[in-house]
Specification:
This protein is of the alpha+beta class and about 90 residues long. It has two helices and four strands, in the order βββαβα. About 15% of the residues lie in helices and about 20% in strands. The radius of gyration is 19 Å and the shape is elongated. The two termini are about 15 Å apart. Bound molecules: zinc ion. The site of zinc ion (ZN) has 8 residues, from α2. The site of zinc ion has 8 residues, from α2.
């Protein structure tokens, strides 16, 4: 059968099986190596206040959160895009 991707969209290699995680948005079960990882910084201080504090020389710590998305949610949120056939990586 024809294969769309050599890796099946995963980074598993030849290891057989991998753990599963839940999508942060829809909750579907995705293989850990297929899930799209998105890290973002969340600041607890309002942007306008943060600007003032930074001007006064304050260090504002921000938490880093990791979110794992299934492929369809990652496409929906624009974290990954559908590439045209000509833009896809050459596989050999
Ligand atoms: Zn999802």
């Amino acid at each position: 059968m024809t294969k769309k991707r050599k890796s099946g969209g995963r980074s598993k290699g030849g290891k057989g099986s991998s753990d599963h995680v839940q999508c942060s948005n829809c909750g579907t079960i995705v293989p850990k190596d297929k899930a799209k990882r998105v890290t973002s910084r969340i600041s607890l201080v309002e942007p306008s206040l943060a600007r003032e504090l930074r001007a006064a020389g304050t260090y504002i710590a921000a938490q880093t959160t990791l979110k794992l998305y299934c492929v369809s949610c990652a496409v929906h949120f624009g974290h990954v895009k559908v590439r045209a056939k000509s833009e896809r990586r050459r596989k050999y």
